[in-house]
Amino acid sequence: MSKRSRIDRFADTGFYEAPNRKELFLPQSRLALMTGINLILKGLVLAAAMAWKTGWSLVLGFTVSAVLQSIVAPQALREKLGSNHLRPVAIATLAGAASSSCSYASAAIMRTLFKKGAALGPSLAFLVASTNLVLELGVILWLLLGWRFMLAEWLGGLVLIAIMVPLSRAFVSQRLIEAARDHEEAGRGHDHGAMTLSGETWRDRLRDPKALNVIAAAFAMDWRMLWKDLVAGFLIAGMLSAVVPGDLWRTLFLSGLPEGWRVFAEALIGPLVAILTFVCSIGNVPLAATLWGGGVGFVGVLAFLYADLIVLPLIDAYRRYFGLKMALAIAATLYVSMVVAALVMGGVFDLTGLTPKPVAGVQATLATFAFDYSFYLNVIAALLAGWLFWKARPAPMHDHSHHGHTAA
């Protein structure tokens, strides 16, 4: 096949318009350069459109998360998570759902809980809930993929935890658990630090004069930890949407297999693809939209979404926190749980008729900018975020010495 015909064939995939008659007379090198530049520009537009559609929901979710992080007492939480029984797991799940959505921050908090005496089951339940059951993740899924994916993410997160806790008891010996607790850490990852307020109840903590400053600090910290992952997620999704044809995604996920085998293969492959993306819980939603638009099945996309906790940088963080054997045990437990949870949710949605229909051209739908609800919500969100960042700025030294907090 000639060089010209290869370029024309790539251009006719549907992700890029074929060259017009005038362009066909351009030199091959110039035509290839123009094709590449247009694809990059299209990828950037798609990335910006995805970020635009979800910007306000991120601010809303991080604000709610910051409030809840600030009023929950961590010491009381650790004291209630000392066994793998139902109640500690439920408490950890609820606490995780009310906590940070940053995978790296969640891993750091999980490390603290575990090393302070929490059992492995509740510690992992907190980890999963804090990345799969949080508000902002559900809202972004609704905006980019529809409410069925949001429901599948939240219900699937609960199923994942229900599978993972007994699996962790089977996969991880008590001897390995004790060795992991005593492991000398090789460096520190992203950490939240102490962000709580004083008071016996959550109402008392909200009345603390420092409440607004502490909440703003938690909000700003989440953004500082997460913005690189979000930018990477949107850019990766935008570029892959522009460059990779749907046939390649379907081939990668073995979508040509008979139905039963195809679903099973997609569930196995989805987490493996996620491992290589290096993107955290919210950052991988745009890429999930790209997979869905490219023809990957419902179960494969769900398995990909669940797998944000086993990307390579996080596995390395587990190694630094707990040692290599424990890191591999955690990764294996999470992987098996994610695959099974995706298969279970796929079966439940199929039986109830809730499985969403593939949406052709989802990228084109996203690449729209208009004066609709997104514009007005983004303006409000930008004002709120700016105010919270202003409140989170370091206080002058004399304010610390006399008042202990900045003026509201």
Short description:
With 408 residues, the protein is mainly alpha-helical. The chain has 20 helices and no strands. It has one domain (42-394).
Task: Give an overview in words.
Keywords: Cell membrane, Membrane, Transmembrane, Transmembrane helix. This protein has 408 residues and is mainly alpha-helical. It has one domain. Helices cover 72% and strands 0% of the residues. The protein contains 20 helices and no strands. α11 crosses α19 (373-391). The radius of gyration is 23 Å and the shape is globular. The model is unreliable at 1-18, 187-194 and 396-408 (pLDDT under 50).
How is this fold's topology laid out?
Blueprint: H1 3-11, H2 28-71, H3 74-79, H4 86-97, H5 103-115, H6 120-132, H7 135-145, H8 147-171, H9 174-181, H10 202-207, H11 211-243, H12 246-252, H13 259-275, H14 284-293, H15 298-306, H16 312-322, H17 324-352, H18 362-366, H19 373-391, H20 397-402
